[in-house]
Amino acid sequence: MALRNIVEKDGEGSDILRKHCREVDKVDDRIRTILDDMVDTMREASGVGLAAPQIGMMRRMFVAEPEPDEVYYFVNPEITRREGEQESEEGCLSVPGYAGLVKRPEKITIKGLDRDGRPQEFDFEGFRAIVMCHEYDHLDGILYVDKAEEVHPATLAGEEE
Ligand code: NI
Questions:
Q1: Coil vs helix vs strand at 138
Q2: Distance from the CA of 116 to the center of ligand 1, in angstroms?
Q3: How far apart are CA 113 and CA 102, in angstroms?
Q4: N or C, where is the chain less crowded by C-beta within 10 Å?
Q5: 15 CA to middle of ligand 1, Å?
Q6: Residue 118 Cα, ligand 1 centroid: separation in angstroms?
């Protein structure tokens, strides 16, 4: 177990949060170690998701834990279906102390590789769809603040992505 530093929007090395991440060539032990560190780091920060660029890795992968002990690993993910619309308050571990209302699809289908490099595909809706879309955006250098109508100081310590 190892914790990684989380890159913040206005902090050192923040350029990486705006980059288009590169695909992962092979899911090997090195990648698995990074994914495991990402889960530790996400949990330590009380987050529900963390994308590789947030720990300074320009690679297309993220982890998510929308409910306790329900962990997802996505390597080279692709959202193949977006349906409907929902709006909710989002936060981000790279934008600490703030929150904003963001519109997202109500339902998605997302595919990619899992922690073992095997293909996986999920249908998500509601909160899980929000989390996956938020993390997916990070891989293209997009932060929720780009999509939020208004970003304001977070009043409650809530879940952050
Ligand atoms: Ni985020």
A1: helix
A2: 24
A3: 27
A4: N
A5: 15
A6: 25
Round to whole Å and give the CA distance between 26 and 14: 26
107-113 and 119-125 strand pairing: antiparallel
CB 139 within 8 A of CB 21: yes
Fill in the DSSP letter of residue 20: P
Ligand 1: centre distance to CA 142 (Å) = 9
Q: Is 67 designated active site?
A: no
For 17, 66, 88, 145, 153, the CA distances from 150, given in Å and listed in that order, are 20, 24, 12, 8, 10
Q: What is the pLDDT of residues 94-137, one digit of tens each?
A: 999 999 999 999 999 999 999 999 999 999 999 999 999 999 99
The Cα 138–Cα 18 span in angstroms is 8
- The predicted structure's pLDDT at residue 102: 97
Q: Could you say which of 65, 135, 160, 161 is catalytic?
A: 135
Whole-model pTM over 0.85: yes
pLDDT for 155 beyond 80: no
